[in-house]
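It would be a great kindness if you could assist me with a short task in structural biology. I am sending you one protein, given as its amino acid sequence and as whole-number tokens for its backbone shapes. I would ask you to consider whether the tokens describe a fold that such a sequence might reasonably adopt. The full record is reproduced below for your convenience.
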Amino acid sequence: MGQLADTRADTRAGTLAGSLEGKTAVVTGGSTGIGLAAAHRLADEGAHVFITGRRAAVLDAAVEAIGPARATAVVGDIANPADLDRLYETVAARGRGLDVLFANAGTGSFATLEQTTEEHFDAIFGANVRGTLFTVQKALPLLNDGASVILTSSVRAGDGVAAFGTYAASKAAIRSYARTWANELKARNIRVNAVSPGSIDTPGVDSLVDGEDAAAVKAQFAAGVPLGRLGSAEEVADAVAFLASERSSFFLGANLYVDGGEMQI
């Protein structure tokens, strides 16, 4: 199974290799999970990738995994405007503008309508909506004409999972932003699109179950996927790489589901 996964990864890496040669990319939440897989993939295609996250040690490990010559870490929280300013000052110092922005960082936790507190709401909307908004807004002066902006939404935005309403609403807002910003930025040929992962096996899943039997919870998630398994972060990175490249030149305001058919059949 491991050899098969390695073969698939090698095949994917070769599909678009070099499509971002000489480009500059930013991936927020780029130290683990989907963000790290996407950052690694964009770097494999030739981009120099700036990754952000709140934990310096984890970011440093990510840079080592991607390759120090191909990635730069900037510690920060997207919910903090000063951290975003510092990120883009670092990107600007490279002197090549910005060609790809994957606004991926976010957070999520369970709470029913009855259980939802102001703190729960503010934490999720502060990162997922407010943080994404200012991640993109503050990038505008750096974005080169023809750049690609990719937002992380989720299948949860439309499936009504109990106790996940605030997270779902935040991701529905991201889907809406993708449409509006695509319309606003099209004059600069900047393409804004979204990617909506389904049930993906990432460290974030383990943190959500919070002490429960993670394997049992993941098996329950997988049972709801028509393909019968969880997706991988690398499979989401495939969609991100496509949207980042010129191969998606006729995609605007779109939403790519990477869900094993979860929301389709």
